[in-house]
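Thread title: Can someone regenerate the structure for this chain?

I was given the following input by a collaborator and told the matching structure tokens would be attached. They weren't. Posting the sequence so someone can regenerate them.
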Amino acid sequence: MMVVDLHVHTTASSDGDYTPREIVEMAVKKKIRVMAITDHDSVAAVEAGIRWGVAYNVEVIPGCELFTQYQGRFLHILGYYIDPRDPDLVELCERSAADSVKRIDLQIKALREGGFYLEKEKVLEQCQRSSPLYSNYVQAIFEDARNSNNPVVREYQQKDMGVIQFCRKFMCMGKEFYIPQFIPEAEEVLNIIRKSGGISVLAHPGVNLKKEENFIIDDLVRLGLAGLEVYTSHHQLEDEKFYADYCKEHQLIYTSGSDFHGSFKPKVKLGEIKNNSLQVVEMLKKAVREEGGKQK
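Best answer:
Regenerated them for you:
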């Protein structure tokens, strides 16, 4: 079985540890033959990843993971086989980055007023190569010794993937320390991915949606969503079965991706994900060819 990983982050994501070259070199050691670079609201590492992939004989799929919203739900949409130079896609990523930088002082103020110590320079240290995400603020809080006796900090430091859980509990859309931000509508994101030549897949749906919210996926499919990330480090067995059945019933693509970052998610290993065979890649390629035929 050929090893495939369709959800991988580099240093172009502010919570990613490894450069495109380092990621490809790791893929070689793991015997990964096909991988997708899918950074948060960024295509900055895609072309370098492809070049290093050619050098090391690893097929690197150009991709991205775009933050979006639909009916008040915060979602992540993966774009595969996108054109990293597409002007609309590049502009969308630039708008997201500019907004992230614009919100830094407001976000720090909200967290300080909530009783947490953190310094701006420490937040920026977490994301030297890109704009900050929620996780960068939380990491700065966790690493500040002045928070060591804060019961909330202690609680989340002890949790599995505590940084992520803190973000979801306190900082995401509608939560206590949420700062209004630029989050494009799903229809716009799906259209931009399609225009750039790509195929759209909803990342880890079990994280952002409840099982009874299938109507959201139904709507997204009507808007152009092609598949679901069924096999991911975020899903349990019941999630995998639920979304695999959904894909089968609605004739959607299923994908498998680890969501590898590095130290941010220390238990998530590159390439270690279920059903990561070449068949998944072939389904994506077929969808790209069919979509291209429709546009002619």
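The chain has a mean pLDDT of 93.
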